[in-house]
Amino acid sequence: MSILKTAIFALTCLVLSSVLINPVSACPLSDLDGDCKTDIIDLVILGEQWLDPAGCPGYANACADFVGNDGVNLQDFLLLAQEWELKQNYPVVINEIHYNPDLPYELVEFVELYNAGNQEIDLSGWTFSKGISYTFPANTILSAGAYLVISENASVRTLSPITSVSAKYGTSTSVLMGPFTGSLNNEGEEIVLCDDSGMIVDQVDYKLGFPWPTTGDAVPDNGTNPGSGHSIQLANPAFDNNLAANWRSAFPTPGAANTAVYAENLPPLIRQVVHTPESPTTADMVTVSAKVTDSDGIHSVTLLYQVVIPGDYVTKGDAAYNSWISLAMHDDGINGDSFAQDSVYSVELPAATRQHRYLIRYRIGAQDNDGRSITVPYADDPQSNFAYFVYNGVPAWTGAIRPGVTPPVTYGAEVMNALPVYHMISKQTDVESATWYSKYTGEDYLWYGTLVYDGRVYDHIRYRARGGVWRYAMGKNMWKF
């Protein structure tokens, strides 16, 4: 026997001595060694059985007669070739993530898994390799249609003020596992689930803010309902969970269906919302674009915008905030749209909006051919619109130590624009109240405004005077946002 044949025979014996047939139907048909992927080991086993008759005598538990029950032949080899390096398509999905509870001292962060298949799956040795760290112990079985919750604190006990997932949400300890190590980043990160061979089973790269749902505040966000913060939840386990538009926010449901957000068919998926240029001047034509897709076809995409002029600021609580101007967006390659039929819809804003110090807010609405519609940002997003600020730059500044007595000094626009530039836009009455008149000394942020820095708009921020009991003694504009 040649050295090569001896090596192959030894390898085959090693493989067959530990064959484990995985009952999950999603394993490739040509998987012979039970690791749920087709690779060189499966090829070696087929080679040892080449031209064996039907039934593969001596190899009944790992028979390479995949096609026709007619012995191991070319048809079986072709199937193996087609499935080469094909891996298990496990029906296990990351279905819910609670990464930013509004009460940070409650240890209630968790990641929920769901088995969307029709057979139980052995998770023994599976791991979370990114985002959090956790290895599933031996004999961890996830039944078909069942949930597992890997929590920050799996204990059923409540150690005040630390609250567990089970105590907080009434989750059965039978579906709770953990605790995981590490933490879920409030700004977003990638969570990766791997099987016991290190192959990636599922991964979700979530972010904070649109197109992902926004969480982290009590609901309603007025300080009266602490501990009611939302998780992000997949609208349907069959949907692509790495696509942000398939997720919504709702009160956490660890170990149970996401009934508050569940949908058999979603309205159009809107993402990649941009306006160009990001920091326009009065000389710039502004184009708003968004990628919009739907398997049922797109009926219409609409831009809704409003203009906030200097000295007439509008908050979300004002009636004027509910007034929006509509413009049709198109995917026809003209009027600001770069390429036709690429699912990116665009529109150019009217010239009248290009005025110095104008704040332009906008939303995007879409409807599919079956009548399902949506407007983004989502209704529960605290950043309830997108926005940009038209600004021609800081002008030159002239001043004197003692005006009329000492000579003035002028700093040109090039000097002024070399400095960091902040705009805080708000109502005059609110600024005066927050700065002087109210004498408010609490910790809530009672006044609304818009912060612009480095050309980027942070709309609907809240502010108050900064400091403790002496915050009004200095007479300066010391604000905290």
What do these coordinates show?
- This protein has 481 residues and is mostly beta strands.
- 11% of the residues lie in helices and 28% in strands.
- The protein has six helices and 26 strands.
- The strands form seven sheets. It has a six-stranded mixed beta sheet, with no helix packed on it.
- A hairpin with a 5-residue loop joins strand 9 and strand 10.
- Helix 1 (3-16) crosses helix 2 (40-48).
- The longest helix has 14 residues, at 3-16.
- 32% of the residues are buried.
| Strand content bin | 25-35%
Structural class: mainly beta
Helical stretch tally: 6
Radius of gyration: 30 Å
Instruction: Name the shape in a single word.
Output: elongated
Query: Major sheet: order of its strands?
Result: 8-7-2-1-11-12
Name the helicity range. 10-25%
What is this entry, summarized?
11% of the residues lie in helices and 28% in strands. With 481 residues, the chain is mainly beta. The radius of gyration is 30 Å and the shape is elongated.
What attributes characterize this protein structure?
mainly beta; five-stranded antiparallel β-sheet; 28% strand; disordered N terminus
Layout of strands and helices, then pairs:
Elements: H1 3-16, H2 40-48, H3 74-82, E1 92-98, E2 110-115, E3 121-122, E4 127-130, E5 134-135, E6 141-142, E7 147-151, H4 165-169, E8 176-177, E9 188-194, E10 200-207, E11 231-234, E12 247-250, E13 269-276, E14 287-293, E15 298-308, E16 325-328, E17 344-348, E18 359-368, E19 373-376, E20 386-389, E21 397-399, E22 409-411, H5 413-416, E23 422-425, H6 428-437, E24 447-453, E25 456-465, E26 479-480
Parallel strand pairs: 7-8
Antiparallel strand pairs: 1-2, 1-11, 2-7, 3-6, 4-5, 4-9, 9-10, 11-12, 13-14, 14-17, 15-16, 15-18, 18-19, 18-20, 21-22, 23-24, 24-25, 25-26
Helix pairs in contact: 1-2
